[in-house]
Design a protein that fits this description.
By secondary structure, the chain is mainly β. The chain is built from two helices and 32 strands.
């Protein structure tokens, strides 16, 4: 179903101004005004879309004005107004494992694909035409990794696209043998390398990012961190775009034993790097770890997990973090109730907002594989898989917030797949354990136009890689709705 995006924010503000201070019995008048959800979508709000506040509070059945002695203040107006939204997904035509993704300024999307490259190497799948497409037939996906001497497939393939230079980095982690790095500066047309990024540690559970931190021989600094089978992650930096790498150094402050697993790392516009995982005491809390010197040293910044607790599942050490265009930092993690939680920082992790549970009001009883991305200031997208039938089926969910700084942020959540098209239906603990193509983690990005892309696997279809996104919805790098793109789904697998 194609839906037409509409917003009533301006209308609500006009009503609010007209009513200000004019009526003493305002509650009856407010109830007579149309709801911001009335006629929001031309064909009705999809049954896989929910508008809600924190703690699964349904916004469609909650008051949408706050009445004060002198005014009617709209909760759902301006940057916090609802926009008609619908989720969908598009297949890449190949299998994936622990899908990592990237996007270039040429509007090409990339996903890693285990074993589908030449001679069984890691494929780097390029999807063209997805961004801005008018018809589903407009897009196509193909492997663009075709090195003269392909690097052997690895147990943990990884692709990353530098947001500042468009360099595509291909990392193949060979466990005890180290990590090889290759790169392309022309959308995968030609590849250079491999260089070797390794040290004294065992290579496992890697994460890679870049930032504009000053480098000696490249516009950006690159950092990778790995588990290392050690009491803390270890990290290495490159100042020449991945050609050479420095020594592996502790990814935590001196004396900190946090455990080795780490969530995805991200670079910020101000040159900082951030990662999330267990706190230094190894106890109940999660922390964000920040480097302001190009990945050489790290400081700990505990997240507000006192109320949420932390999940005790296979990936219990991970918390996810991302920095928006204004250098605000956004974090996501799974609580002890196996529900997703969110918090933000406006001072580079020095302090955090109160934690907010972001699941929709549909009775989810388990979630896992969290990912987070941010676009404009205070504009956030969070992805995860979840179940509402105690593990009989697992689905893909995207939650977006257009303005996290308002008093009562509206959360718009979509289920990317139909109820009759689950992403997993044979592993009851999928959100709490390794699960098919999900492996250890998924990935998420927001393109230059403000549309979010969530890298997942469709396990029921044979662990095929998919890009989850919004066919209609809010622009996460601006205001108002995105241009409509067609619905994809199972027919694109």
């Amino acid at each position: 179903m194609t839906v037409r995006a509409k917003t009533l924010g301006v209308i609500l503000l006009m009503f609010s101004g007209a009513l200000s201070g004019c009526f003493s019995g305002g509650s009856a008048l407010v109830s007579a005004l149309s709801s911001p959800f009335e006629d929001l979508c031309e064909n009705g709000i999809p049954d896989t879309t929910w508008y809600h506040y924190g703690n699964a509070t349904d916004a469609r059945t909650s008051p949408w004005f706050v009445e004060t002695p002198d005014d009617f203040v709209p909760i759902l107006g301006g940057s916090n107004a609802p926009i008609c939204t619908q989720g969908t997904y598009f297949g890449i035509g190949m299998t994936t494992f622990e899908p990592t993704i990237g996007v270039t300024s040429s509007d090409n999307l990339y996903m890693s694909s285990y074993g589908n490259g030449p001679a069984g190497s890691t494929a780097i799948v390029q999807c063209t035409g997805l961004i801005g497409m008018m018809n589903v037939s407009d897009y196509e996906c193909e492997n663009v990794y075709d090195a003269l001497a392909p690097v052997a497939n690895s147990n943990d393939p990884y692709v990353y696209v530098d947001p500042w230079t468009d360099r595509i980095m291909k990392f193949d982690m060979h466990a005890l043998l180290g990590m090889t790095v290759e790169w392309s500066d022309n959308e995968g047309g030609t590849w250079f390398g491999p260089s070797v990024a390794t040290g004294w540690s065992v290579q496992d559970h890697q994460t890679i990012a870049s930032s504009p931190y000053p480098a000696l021989a490249h516009p950006t600094t690159w950092v990778f961190c790995v588990n290392g089978n050690y009491p803390y992650p270890v990290c290495s930096a490159s100042n020449d775009g991945g050609v050479t790498w420095g020594p592996e150094l502790p990814g935590t402050p001196s004396g900190c034993e946090s455990g080795g697993l780490t969530g995805h790392m991200v670079g910020s516009e101000n040159g900082n790097f951030y990662r999330g995982h267990r706190g230094c005491d190894g106890g109940e809390g999660y922390s964000v770890y920040r480097s302001v010197d190009g990945g050489i040293t790290w400081t700990e910044h505990p997240l507000p997990t006192e109320v949420s607790g932390t999940a005790e599942t296979w990936n219990f050490e991970e918390a996810q973090v991302f920095a928006d265009e204004a250098d605000n930092v956004h974090a996501m993690w799974m609580g002890s109730d196996n529900m997703p939680y969110y918090s933000y920082s406006i001072d580079e992790g020095g302090s955090w907002s109160d934690a907010m549970m972001i699941a929709p009001p549909i009775g989810l009883n388990g979630t896992g594989f969290p990912v987070i991305a941010a676009g404009g200031s205070g504009q956030v997208a969070m992805g995860y898989i979840g179940t509402f039938d105690s593990g009989a089926t697992w689905n893909g969910y995207l939650s977006v917030i257009m303005d996290v700084f308002v008093d009562q942020p509206l959360i718009t959540t979509v289920q990317l797949n139909g109820f009759d098209d689950p992403l997993e239906d044979s592993k009851s603990d999928c959100g709490y354990d390794r699960c098919g193509g999900f492996g250890d983690f998924n990935d998420i990005i927001i393109d230059q136009h403000g549309r979010v892309w969530f890298g997942l696997a469709h396990n029921v279809a044979g662990e095929l890689g998919i890009f989850g996104t919004l066919s209609d919805g809010p622009n996460l790098r601006g205001t108002g709705p995105l241009p409509t793109i067609p619905i994809g789904g199972n027919s694109t697998l």
